[in-house]
Every structure is written in C-alpha cells, then in structure tokens.
Write a sequence for this structure.
C-alpha cells in the first residue's frame, strides 16, 4: 500500500485538497469520496467514455486517470457544467432534442461535446461524430445526440435552434 | 385525440434534463454511507464437478465480513423466470464459465477483490457441449446429469396446413441454412443494486431491473423468504434491452444482505463480469425451405430452428416460441411447418434481448425471400409486397391478424423512398475501388406476453396536497421513455400542464403490480391502466369540486389547467384547494389493464404453455445502402431507412428515438457484433474486443412514419420497442449480395467474407 499524499486541484470551480492514496482512480475519488456521481462507470477500461471529465478543458477518461495526476489541474464534471435549474446549453440541448434515452452515457457525452464546442464554434456533423466517437451510446444510434450538439453550437452563435 | 408532439417535446424534457446534468441517481449511484460490497467468484471453466470451495483464506482478509457458498443458501437455491434451473451459487456442478461458486462480502471494494482472488475452487473438468445440434447426439455429455430428455430443453412445433405436401407441388423451392450469433446487450450501466435486511426482518432492495414485482418471487423462491416481505425499487435504468429481465444481482444481493446484519450491501458487476455471466441473445441455426408458385405467391414454408440456450432455460422456451411464430415473417403462407429445438450447452446463458427470437427468424425468412426473388427473377420488394399480410389474414401460425396490419404500408413507404427507388443511379456512381448495393427487408414483431398468463398492469394516480399529480409507475423506464409517455397521456387526459406531473419510479411498496418492462408492452398496458385511472380521477375531481361550487350536476363541470371550472356560473375550484381538502385515500385513483389475447387460438404450438400465440403485431420495413471497399473488404453502411407501423403515433420524437436505437443495434448485429466463444470460453469479453457501433459507424438512421390505429390501445398506439431491430441484418445482407455477389447466410458479415467474395471465392 502506498503512502497517502495530499492532492490539491480545482473541482467545478471550487478548490479541493484531499489526502488520499495516489494510485486510486479519479473515477472512484469523484464518485466515492466526493459524491459526484455524474461520471459513470461503464467499462472501467477506457472504452465507453461514460466517465469522461474535463481536465484543464480537455476531455479525459476518469477511469484511466490516477488521483495524483490531478495535482494543480482544473477539473470539471457534468455537475460543473450545469444544474437542472441552470443547465449548460449543451445539457439543455440534449434534453430538448431527444438525445437522452437511458441517460447513462449522457454526462460523458455532454463533456465530450463541451470540449468540442470550446474548440470549434461551428462544427459540422462529421466533426461532432468524430468528437463523440469515444463515447458509446447503446440507446440512440447517435442521430439525436449529433442534432443536439449542432443545435447547441447554433444557439451559442445566436442562431435559432 | 392527443396530438403528435414535435421535436423539442415538452413531455420528454424533465427527466432528460436531470439525466443530462448528472443529477439523476441510477442504481449504481445508490451508495448508502458505510455500505458493504458484495461480489461473486465465477467458475471460469465451462463444465466441471465442484469438489470443494475453500473460503478460509478469503475469510481471513481484513475487512471481509462473509464468504458464502451454495451450502449457505437457505432456499431452493434455484432461479429462473419460468423454468427454475439456475443456481444462485453452484453447489456440485459448474455448467458455464460465468457460474457463481461463492459470494464474498467486505467493507471495501479493495478487500472484496482480495477475498475473491483468494477463494480457491477445486474443480474436476468435465467434457462440455458447445453446439446445440451436437448436444443432441445420444453420446453427448449431459449439461444436467440425469435429466430426462438429456440436453433437449424443449421442442416445439407450430404448423398450419400441410407444408411438406404443398412443398412438393410448388413451382419453385429455395433452401438455405442460416446462422446468427450470440449478441451482447451492452447496456451502459452494468448490473447493480443494493440491499439490506430491515429491522422488521424484511428485505429492501434497489436494483437495475426490468421486473421489480417479479423479482420478489424470484428471490423468495431461491432463498426461502416471504415474497411480501421483500421491497424492490427500480430507479431509472441505464439501459437493459432485455438483459435485465431476470435475476442478475438480485438473488446474490439478497443472500449477501441476509448475512449482513441489517447493513446495506452493494453489488456492481464489472463489464467483464457482465460479459461472462450476463444473458445473451440466443445463437441460432435455422434451415428453411420456402416454396412458391411461378408468379411468386408463397405456398409453403418448412423450417427448423435450433436455439443455443446455454446451460439454463431462462427464457429460451418462450424465445423459441416467438421464433417459430415469426418464422414466416409478415407474409401470407398457406402451408407452414416450423419446428424448433432449444438445447442446453455449456456456452453462456441465452436470454431476452430486444426482438426476442424474432431477430433470428427474421434473418432466415428474409434471406429466403431474397433467394426466392432471385430464382423467380422478381424484384425483392415486389415479391414481399405481393405476399404481405393484410388485416384479417392468417399469419404463419394460423392466427388471424385481428389488429390492423401495416405490413403493406411499411413496404410501400420503403419502395417509394429515394434510397430504394433511385438505387440504380446511386449504385452506378460508386467511387473507384468501391462497390455499392441496396437491400430491403420487412418484419413484424408481436407485442405483449401472448396467451397463457395475464399481461397486466395496475396504475395509481394521486392528486397531491399541492394540487399536482403523482403517477405511480409500475414498469421500469430503461431508457425507452415510459415516464414522459405516461405524463403525456395523463396530462392530456386531465387537461393539465406536464409540469404538474411527477412520475414515481417503480417501487413494490408504493406502486401497484405490473408485469415486466419488456415485450414492447409497457406503454400499452400501463398506459391503458393509467388512462382509466385518469378517467376516474377526472370524475372524482368534478364530483368533489361540485361540493365546493354547490353545483348539483357535477357532469357540467370540466377540468382546466390547475382547476375545476363551472362554466354555468364562471366559478372555479383550484386543484390545490381540492388537494388540501381531500383525505389521502380520496386523492388516489387506481385502475388496471389486462391485454386482450387471441380469441380463437389455432390448434398448434400446444407445447408452449405461455407466450403463444400473440394478438398484436407492430410492422416494419427497412432499406439499407452499403458500400464495400474492394481493397479492404470493409463495409460502410451509408443509409438505413426504417418504416414502422406501431399503431397511432403519439410522440413522433419518442417513436423516432426507439426506431433509431433499434436500427443501431440491428446494424451492429449485421456488421460487427459477434459474441465469439471457443469451447465455452468467451473470446470477446470486453468492449475492446466486442465492438458495438460508435458515432462514426452509423449513418443518419432515418425513420418514416406509417400511422396506424389499434382500437384497443391507449389513443390507438401499439408497442414499438422491438420491431425496428429486425430490418438492418437482412437488408444489409441483401445489399451486400447486390454489391459483391456474396451469398450471405450468417451475420455479422466480416470484411474477410467480403474480400473473398470479390475475389470470386464465394462458395
């Protein structure tokens, strides 16, 4: 067993300092210790994308990251993107455009989409498909997810969705 | 009449938003403080005698609270929805690699993992059987030693007329053997749950389950408990598709809770464990002879189907019944003989999966129709249309299509679609080193349980103290969108805004009994029950409001958003006032629906005690366009258009979502999904080796609505969760045959097959 370390990072805009074993998975830290369950475990091996989070603005798989890798980073989970009362435009678009079925992949999908839109304000559908291709969804066939991301991008540019 | 909702559907919005922001709590997210963790030790070998299970070292691990074996199970130790032959913990024999042989409970997941690794099992390997036909040989090893009937779990025969005699007088007969593989559900949320014993000796459970009301009896039977002392709650499921119909974690968790002194125990299967121990779509081998007249009128069908059940019955017999019932597709065939065998093997356990036996049968009959069209020189769509079942005609099982049939309309919609109509032009424009093809397929899918057991749901509706409404949902929402559909039905019936409704997810203590969330039945059964409860609620609210309004004829009152109005006087009573005024008993309305069954069942399929035949069918047709790469053999699915007739369309978005999801699973089945095994060991046991479509693998998945009207359905709807999955596999197969001349008789189609075909090596 490794010795505990103190890891300090920003989580959903709040500063977090936590004493923990450095070899733990970020996913377990978020879901277990911090009670943030938006990031889901679908495979535990980096294949499904359900556990995606933003680390310094880049979508990462929290099942493949160790806690020590968070030191000094800025972490955003789906909870940090928005809430039911104040949803992020992407979350709003997912709900409005029928992109959510069982919803288990959805927080991860919104993280991947948020990263894309931060990089590219006017993606085409092929770029959206590419951006979410690391996130598996078994319910939708992806069409409405792509619709939702396109609508969120349009809304961000001030177009009607 | 309720109106079809546009995209941006207000009824869909609420639970979708809570899921999108990550606020919705799934079963996996339910972690009571200080809960224990349970896990199963899996056998890892497909067939063996258990000589001993050594648990001492595991027990000694710090933080381990219990290590249990079959000897610790208090009841029958047997689970199974209809046929109870699957042990909770195997005691003397391992019958497939995923069998659980011990259960550990620990204070942390780390301690649990350590304990599971330290459980030693002394196994004496036994020879296994891995092919359903070979398993029927007289000298084949027995999966269940001493069982009368050996490895043959069940044989079924469904027939009409005299198929063999009629076949002899057909102008043309085509013959083929077809195979479809095991398919993995890949619901994103692995099986999971939590349970504890309550102070009063009851068992409380939260689980990702399609059948909370049935689970009580499963658990009670296996563990010798009083089913009424068991409370099961089913929050929103992270997908299921049939894979959570039946016990996954339930009995193991209940056993762990029994030995955990009132503490919560949680269990979450890993993805690999889900592959190993979860249910699969049954692999099937089908031999078909299909005969027709020179003009292409179908005359006779004679087929045999072998379903690989794996070592336990689970739902294999019922799945076979549907396979036989649908083996003739949506076609009029005067003489039929469908014989089925489901067979025990030491492969993974077969189970329910969207399309329930029909996916397999559809592939075989549709490929046979293609072969027939080719032999007769007919257009494959025209051949289908000519033989499509119309309302009132007899299906292949001899049942009259009492419910309106949309088979013709679905086919016509697809034939008119540009992807089919303009296929010659499109194919001619294939880029260099690519070959193009287009295929069409038709299908039907029964809805509901069929004859032999009541297909029932009871709905409860409560006016809250605040004047809002709670719908006590009894059928889990696994992502198909029951919850918003129920809000839409109730809000319209009561003339209220959707925001006034809360849907309480299934809880056997709070909600009233219903069957499972399966068989495309939930919106029909619970929806009908809910509409009746709404009717009662409307009359009650008017009657109670009449007291306040001094209106001596409650019938003249009407419900308006948030109130009951007396137009004669212009006065009204807010629902909030009624909610505050009425006692709780008086604020609740309940009613139930039992789905009607076939009135005059034909004298066939007598072996099937339940689930045969069906009265209602949804219809579908599908066109797929593919492009095969001459250099790599890779196949790209470029268009997939599906027409579905599922009665009246109430929510266009809701239907489209289900059609797209089903088509995506069908496309995976056609081109990439193959749960591959070797001597009972899974070779594709994770998501890096078992591939499902990503966003880059699928085209637009267009839906063409064919409106129908089922007189007995809520506002005319039927069920539609399954019918959309059948088209892609046969349509892709026909498209590939069109593109590269490959006679496809099994899926998934591998690039190697395509390359071989293009090199002229097609045998």
């Amino acid at each position: 067993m490794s010795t505990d370390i103190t890891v300090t990072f920003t989580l959903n805009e709040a500063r977090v300092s936590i004493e923990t074993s450095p070899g733990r998975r970020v996913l377990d830290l978020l879901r277990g210790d911090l009670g943030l369950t938006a990031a889901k475990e679908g495979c535990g091996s980096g294949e499904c994308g359900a556990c995606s989070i933003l680390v310094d603005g880049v979508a990462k798989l929290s099942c493949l990251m160790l806690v020590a890798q968070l030191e000094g980073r800025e972490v955003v989970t789906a909870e940090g993107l928005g809430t039911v009362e104040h949803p992020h435009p992407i979350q709003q678009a997912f709900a409005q455009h029928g992109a959510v079925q069982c919803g288990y992949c959805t927080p991860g999908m919104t993280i991947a989409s948020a990263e894309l839109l931060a990089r590219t304000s006017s993606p085409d559908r092929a770029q959206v498909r590419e951006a979410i291709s690391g996130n598996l969804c078994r319910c939708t066939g992806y069409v409405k997810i792509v619709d939702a991301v396109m609508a969120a991008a349009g809304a961000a540019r001030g177009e009607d969705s | 009449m309720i109106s079809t909702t546009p995209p941006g559907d207000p009824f869909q919005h609420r639970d979708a938003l809570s899921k999108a922001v990550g606020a919705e709590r799934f079963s996996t997210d339910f972690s009571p403080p200080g809960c224990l963790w349970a896990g199963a030790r899996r056998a890892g070998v497909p067939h063996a005698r258990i000589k001993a299970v050594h648990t001492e070292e595991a027990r000694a691990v710090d933080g381990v609270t219990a290590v249990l074996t079959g000897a610790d199970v208090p009841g029958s130790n047997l689970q199974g929805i209809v046929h109870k032959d699957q042990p909770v913990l195997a005691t003397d024999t391992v019958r497939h690699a995923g069998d659980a042989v011990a259960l550990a409970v620990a204070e942390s997941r780390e301690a649990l993992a350590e304990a599971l690794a330290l459980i030693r099992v002394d196994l004496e390997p036994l020879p296994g059987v891995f092919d359903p036909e070979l398993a029927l040989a007289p000298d084949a090893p027995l999966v269940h030693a001493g069982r009368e009937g050996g490895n043959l779990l069940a044989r079924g025969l469904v027939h009409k007329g005299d198929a063999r005699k009629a076949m002899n007088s057909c102008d043309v007969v085509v013959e083929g053997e077809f195979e479809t593989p095991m398919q993995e559900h890949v619901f994103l949320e692995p099986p999971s749950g939590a349970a504890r014993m309550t102070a009063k000796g009851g068992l409380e459970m939260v689980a990702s389950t399609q059948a909370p009301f049935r689970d009580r009896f499963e658990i009670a039977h296996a563990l010798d408990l009083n089913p009424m002392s068991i409370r099961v709650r089913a929050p929103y499921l992270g997908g299921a598709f049939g894979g959570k119909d039946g016990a996954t974690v339930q009995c193991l968790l209940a056993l762990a809770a029994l030995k955990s002194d009132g503490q919560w125990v949680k269990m979450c299967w890993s993805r690999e464990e889900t592959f190993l121990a979860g249910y699969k779509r049954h692999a099937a081998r089908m031999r078909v002879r299909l005969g027709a007249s020179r003009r292409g009128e179908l005359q006779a069908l004679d087929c045999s189907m072998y379903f690989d059940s794996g070592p336990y019955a689970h739902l294999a017999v019922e799945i076979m019944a549907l396979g036989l019932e649908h083996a003739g597709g949506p076609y009029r065939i005067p003489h039929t003989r469908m014989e089925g065998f489901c067979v025990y093997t030491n492969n993974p356990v077969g189970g329910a999966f969207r399309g329930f036996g029909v996916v397999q049968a559809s592939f075989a009959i549709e490929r046979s129709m293609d072969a027939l069209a080719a032999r007769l020189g007919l257009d494959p769509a025209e051949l289908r249309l000519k033989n499509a079942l119309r309302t009132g005609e007899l299906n292949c099982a001899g049942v009259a299509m009492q419910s309106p049939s949309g088979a013709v309309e679905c086919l016509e919609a697809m034939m008119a679609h540009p992807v089919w109509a303009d296929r010659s032009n499109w194919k001619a424009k294939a880029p260099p080193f690519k070959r193009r093809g287009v295929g069409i397929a038709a299908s039907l899918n029964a809805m509901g349980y069929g004859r032999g057991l009541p297909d029932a749901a009871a709905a409860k509706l409560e006016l809250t103290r605040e004047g809002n409404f709670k719908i006590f949902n009894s059928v889990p929402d696994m992502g198909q969108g029951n919850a918003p559909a129920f809000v839409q039905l109730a809000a319209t019936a009561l003339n209220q805004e959707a925001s006034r409704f809360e849907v309480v997810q299934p809880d056997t203590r709070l909600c009233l009994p219903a069957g499972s969330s399966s068989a495309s039945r939930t919106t029909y059964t619970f929806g009908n029950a809910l509409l009746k409860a709404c009717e009662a609620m409307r009359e009650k609210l008017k009657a109670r409001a009449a007291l306040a309004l001094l209106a001596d004829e409650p019938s003249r009152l009407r419900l308006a958003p948030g109130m009951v109005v007396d137009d004669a006087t212009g006065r009204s009573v807010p629902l909030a006032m009624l909610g505050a005024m009425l006692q709780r008993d008086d604020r609740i309305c309940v009613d139930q629906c039992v789905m009607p069954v076939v009135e005059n069942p034909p004298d066939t399929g007598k072996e099937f005690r339940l689930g045969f035949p069906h009265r209602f069918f949804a219809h579908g047709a599908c066109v797929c366009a593919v492009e095969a790469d001459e250099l790599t053999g890779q196949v790209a699915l470029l268009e997939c258009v599906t027409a579905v007739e599922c009665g009246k369309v109430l929510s266009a978005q809701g239907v489209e979502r289900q059609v797209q999801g089903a088509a995506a699973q069908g496309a995976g089945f056609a081109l990439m999904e193959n749960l591959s095994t070797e001597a009972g060991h899974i070779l594709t046991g994770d998501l890096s080796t078992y591939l499902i479509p990503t966003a880059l693998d699928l085209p637009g998945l267009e839906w063409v609505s064919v409106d129908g009207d089922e007189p007995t359905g809520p506002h005319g709807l039927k069920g539609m969760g399954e019918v959309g999955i059948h088209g892609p596999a046969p349509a892709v197969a026909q498209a590939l045959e069109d593109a590269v001349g490959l006679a496809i008789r099994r899926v998934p189609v591998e690039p190697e097959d395509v390359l071989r075909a293009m090199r002229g090596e097609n045998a």
